């Protein structure tokens, strides 16, 4: 889907009269669509950058469709895990706007480095949503080609992908692929908890001093499993960037328009040689950390309810209805597409073949290794010892 350009983003300029310097209660939060579905023309970031979007009606409807589809497919994956068809699932519930907004802001040539929760960004990159389900079912390693889709493999080691992204972004500079409108940039996704990892802080240092064309996109969903944000930081996360020497901005992560605008601007600055920046997408993990977690053990229902009122999809729907950009027929059609695609997803998961156990040794190294060959042979002998027995 081709997206309109947010346009008019200018560094260092003051806000236009109708703009607003952040959302109620927090002067630093960039917001372009309120929880009630009211549009804000422009918002100003902490360094004076002005953010705005200018989408066509079709593009607004497209964003709504993306949000509904990724939520439905995610719900289907959770259900599949509950029925024993997946080993585990890390739900994105509540984080759809942060992911779809930033995912749609990527240009074709930009490279993304996800965690294990970026199913919405994966969807925006045009990867078949079945792919991560193979990983969580334990039948393959994910399956997509990172170079083809410009979307790296999921990374479960917290924060490690920020270093991979930094190295990749430094490579973009070495290859001379920055400095023009069609220059390249990279984006690294990570969570609030990851900001306490050494890897992430090292990535900040390296990206900064080498002026790497990299956007650090932190989804602050308020928890690292059961650890709340106040166990990670005493300052707002976006302010950490200043200490490393690059700009930071906090965006309403439940606002798909603002997430799009800040990501598009940050990536374009990076591709033009202006170096890294940090985006803190302020959001909330509405579900459990993963299907192995029970969040009722460590957070209260009223907190979840307060965030329900800021739902990323409800506000887009309210906006589309108020502006008469979409009618009942459109919403019904999107729901029907989401239902069809989730049924299709389920059917294909149930048909996934179980791999031969010995194939777990494949693809560990590009050219194998003597130790691995020995382990494979040992394991094969072990499996053969069962042949002819009842088990
Ligand atoms: C290096 C490392 N340490 C610990 C873990 C276990 N672990 C998995 S998810 C997680 C919390 C991550 O929280 P956050 O960065 O906020 O991301 P979120 O899951 O909230 O999206 C931890 C500690 C891990 N996977 N890797
Ligand atoms: Mg988190």
TrEMBL record:
Its cofactor is thiamine diphosphate. The keyword Oxidoreductase applies. Residues 1-10 have a biased composition (Gly residues). SUPFAM superfamilies: Thiamin diphosphate-binding fold (THDP-binding). It holds the Pfam family E1_dh. The keyword Electron transport does not apply. Residues 67-344 form the Dehydrogenase E1 component domain. Residues 11-21 have a biased composition (Basic residues). Keywords: Oxidoreductase, Pyruvate, Thiamine pyrophosphate. InterPro entries: Alpha-ketoacid_DH_E1_comp, DH_E1, PdhA/BkdA, THDP-binding. Residues 1-28 are annotated as: Disordered. It comes from the Bacteria. This is Pyruvate dehydrogenase (Acetyl-transferring) E1 component subunit alpha. The gene is pdhA.
């Amino acid at each position: 889907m081709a997206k309109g350009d947010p346009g008019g983003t200018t560094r260092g300029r003051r806000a236009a009269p109708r703009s607003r310097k952040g959302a109620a209660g927090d002067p630093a939060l960039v917001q372009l669509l309120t929880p009630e579905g009211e549009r804000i023309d422009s918002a100003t970031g902490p360094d004076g950058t002005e953010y705005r979007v200018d989408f066509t009606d079709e593009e607004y409807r497209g964003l709504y469709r993306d949000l509904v589809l990724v939520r439905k497919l995610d719900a289907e994956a959770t259900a599949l895990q509950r029925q024993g068809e997946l080993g585990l699932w890390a739900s994105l519930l509540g984080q759809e706007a942060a992911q779809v907004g930033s995912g749609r802001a990527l240009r074709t040539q930009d490279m993304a480095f996800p965690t294990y929760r970026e199913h919405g960004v994966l969807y925006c990159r045009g990867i078949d949503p079945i792919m991560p389900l193979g990983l969580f079912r334990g039948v393959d390693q994910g399956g997509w080609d990172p170079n083809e889709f410009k979307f790296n493999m999921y990374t479960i080691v917290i924060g490690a992908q920020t270093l991979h992204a930094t190295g990749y972004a430094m490579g973009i500079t070495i290859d001379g692929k920055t400095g023009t409108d069609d220059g390249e940039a990279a984006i690294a996704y990570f969570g609030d908890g990851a900001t306490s990892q050494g890897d992430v802080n090292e990535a900040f240092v390296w990206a900064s001093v080498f002026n790497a064309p990299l956007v650090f996109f932190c989804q602050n969903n308020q928890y690292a499993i059961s650890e709340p944000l106040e166990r990670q930081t005493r300052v707002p996360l976006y302010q950490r960037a200043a200490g490393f020497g690059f700009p930071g901005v906090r965006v309403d992560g439940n606002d798909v328009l603002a997430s799009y605008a800040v990501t598009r601007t940050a990536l374009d600055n990076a591709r033009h040689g202006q170096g890294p920046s940090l985006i803190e997408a302020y959001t909330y993990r509405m579900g459990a950390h993963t299907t192995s977690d029970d969040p009722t053990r460590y957070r209260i229902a009223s907190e979840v309810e307060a965030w329900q009122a800021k739902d990323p999809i409800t506000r887009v729907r309210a906006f589309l209805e108020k502006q008469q950009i979409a009618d009942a027929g459109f919403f019904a059609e999107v729901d029907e597409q989401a239902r069809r695609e989730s049924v299709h997803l389920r059917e294909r998961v149930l048909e996934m073949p179980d791999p031969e156990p010995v194939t777990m040794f494949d693809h560990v190294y590009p050219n194998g290794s003597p130790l691995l060959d020995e382990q494979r042979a040992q394991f094969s002998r072990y499996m053969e010892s069962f042949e002819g027995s009842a088990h």
